[in-house]
Write a structure and sequence with these properties.
A hairpin with a 4-residue loop joins β1 and β2. By secondary structure, the protein is mainly β. The protein has no helices and eleven strands. The strands form three sheets. Strands 2-1-3-4 form a four-stranded antiparallel beta sheet, with no helix packed on it.
């Protein structure tokens, strides 16, 4: 009769007992699993297997302060909602679509000319996983003398 079943994960970093168990691998790569079984006469049996754990790509979340700014107006981008499912460190890289780039969770940029641009956020994790988020941006001409811009409308009544 089996009296003990011991599972050892990742070189003994975690040990569980029982005929069935569940374990979540936190880092990608090759991970060792060892099984030791003991019967009521003291006989011991062992098994070893290496499991390849795949890397889940990070999640890229992109927010803009304005998706229809005026020429010369500062646009703030925020990728602080981006994360890695395994909890690995991430790096964020921005491309503003006009040749300008930046790094970090937040950044800002202003555009020199009217046009349709695509802001791209690339998020990379420490294991080489990568995700991309894109957002279109319509840069509009500023109106001298305080006219309306930014895609809005104004209605006046007396």
């Amino acid at each position: 009769e089996i009296v003990d079943v011991e599972w050892s994960f990742e070189g003994g970093a975690s040990t569980l007992h029982g005929a069935r168990c569940a374990y979540v691998f936190r880092t990608p790569g090759t991970c060792a699993v060892d099984l030791t079984v003991v019967d009521d006469e003291g006989n011991v049996g062992t098994a070893h297997v290496n499991i390849v754990v795949e890397n889940s790509p990070p999640v890229a979340n992109l927010r803009l302060s304005d998706d229809a700014p005026l020429v010369g107006e500062w646009v703030t981008v925020d990728g602080s909602g981006s994360y890695d499912p395994e909890g690995l460190p991430i790096e964020l890289a921005w491309d503003f679509g006009d040749g300008a780039t930046a790094r970090g969770a937040t950044a800002g940029h202003s555009y020199d000319s009217v046009g349709l641009y695509t802001i791209t956020l690339v998020v990379r994790d420490a294991s080489g996983g990568e995700s991309t988020a894109r957002h279109g941006l319509l840069v509009q001409e500023s109106t001298p003398g305080g006219g309306c811009s930014g895609g809005g409308a104004v209605s006046l009544r007396r």
